[in-house]
Amino acid sequence: MPVDPKLRSLNIDVPAQPESLVKLSLLLADEDVNLQSISGLINSDMALASAVLKAVNSSLYGLAGRVQSVQQAITYLGTREVASVTFEMGLKAVFPPSPELDAVWERASVRGLLMGRIGQALNVDPWAAHSAGLFEECGKAVLFRHAPERYKPLLRAAESDEDLLLLEHDEFGVSHDALGAALCESWGLAPAAVSSVRYHVMVNATLQLPMQLPRRAICALSALAHALMTDPDTLDVVAEKVAPQADLDPALVLRGARKVQEQIENAVERERA
User: Fold this and answer.
1) Residue 117's closest CA among 260, 263, 215, 238?
2) pLDDT digits over 20-48, tens only?
3) Boundary residue ending a domain (73, 93, 113)
4) Cβ proximity of 14 and 180 under 8 Å
5) Whole-angstrom Cα distance, residue 172 to residue 41?
6) pTM of this prediction?
7) Does residue 135 sit in the same domain as residue 163?
8) How far is CA 103 from the centre of its chain?
9) Are 108 and 76 in contact (CB under 8 A)?
């Protein structure tokens, strides 16, 4: 999908999707997903395969023992989560390594996992949910890559993402939520994931889901993941507020979110033990 001409006029480059992820997207679009083909595709890029294995062996995924191959990772975690990790590694690879972006990628990894698993628990497209969580802050990486010396002071000065949007608009004429959505569109993510990325700052600040969207469930998952990552004590309030707006049962939403929270906390505890 082409990038918004308004963004092109600002001369801010939105990176193209790596060829390996284009091929992976095509494989995942097939109703009869060929696990051997997916494993072979990831293994064809040694750096990517190594990064995927390192990620799935982290405490977040809670595996009892270390996996030694991509095929083994797929067996234990399933196609979706391994594909999501692959997209995570591919996304990071198109941006220059920088300490200023480390926190962005760390949050992306946790948020994607939370949203994907909560989505799975609630029967809300877990692939789109995981993708939305992974790409939520990617617009910051786009702006950092575009003008690192101009963007670093903004990252330091902003006390919240709402503040950052205003600073970005003043400096660049565009904000990271719009750029993130443009990247999602150009990489072919599901429309619901694109919308979640576009509106995540507003949703997390106000707990109001965009009424113009026909499907708001993934935006609701973004708010739940944000609560779990920033202030877990507010999860009940957030679930009560956003679930009805997305035509979801608040009790089921809260139960699903708590279950996923417990899974990840237990995995981290096992890693520390």
Assistant:
1) 260
2) 889 988 888 777 777 888 899 999 888 88
3) 93
4) no
5) 38
6) 0.89
7) yes
8) 13
9) no
